[in-house]
Amino acid sequence: MAEAHRDRRSLREVVIDQSIPLSDHEGTRRLFLPGFTKAGSAAHFGAVWPDLAEAFDRLSDVDIDVIVDCGQVSQPGLPAALVERSAVTAVVLNSSLRAVMSARVHMPALCDRGRPGTDVRSQVGMIVVGEGQPYGTGEIAKALDTTIIGTVAADRQSAGHLSDGRPRHRRFDSSPLMRSIVDVGARLATDLQRSTELVRS
């Protein structure tokens, strides 16, 4: 990506070329663009982010939605260009005091970012993992002054399959984790559609 940026090539085309197909189902295309192999590499990517964010944005012209997993938020925060261009920014956090206080540090920077050239702000919300352990979504929403997009079940047995490759148990597809992920995915899709219509209007 950085090489293409230096050569002033279209990053939208490079994104497609460098992506790995995840699904070959007829009528469905899911692609995966690998991230950095070394954490320090992101520090040298600064000049590329604005053009890459624009390339992601323009993929909507060919009916491709982009989900960016930015990993754990730390200083100096997320690349500004990604937040400014995003229709929905979802912060995933546990319901613990430490997680809520950590999110509170980063929330102002996320909420203050607006789409370039418009008054439209990216929608920012929380996805809470393990609601009620110990705080509920109402308490978290109030503490962070933001909305709750949804909750994900704290289902360690099922999560182990996704995070560590442990064998799937018999009821994996109907497990609390997978049911909650489907619910949150549907809510995100709805929020994304609303945000996209707002930007276009």
Taking Cα atoms only, what radius of gyration do you get, to the nearest Å? Answer: 18 Å
Please indicate the count of domains. Answer: 2
How would a textbook summarize the main sheet? 3 strands, parallel
Into which percent range does the helicity of residues fall? 40-55%
Give the amount of beta strand, in percent.
Answer: 5-15%
Count of DSSP H/I helices: 8
The strand count comes to: 5
Q: Uncertain segments of ≥5 residues (pLDDT<50)?
A: none
Shape label: globular
CATH architecture of the largest domain: 3-Layer(aba) Sandwich
Calculate the mean pLDDT score and round it: 87
CATH superfamily of the largest domain: P-loop containing nucleotide triphosphate hydrolases
User: What class would the helix/strand composition place it in?
Assistant: alpha/beta
- N-to-C series of helices and strands: HHEEHHEHEHEHH
| C-alpha end-to-end distance | 32 Å
CATH-defined topology of the largest domain? Rossmann fold
Report the top-level CATH class of the largest domain.
Alpha Beta
Trace the largest sheet across and list its strands: 3-4-5
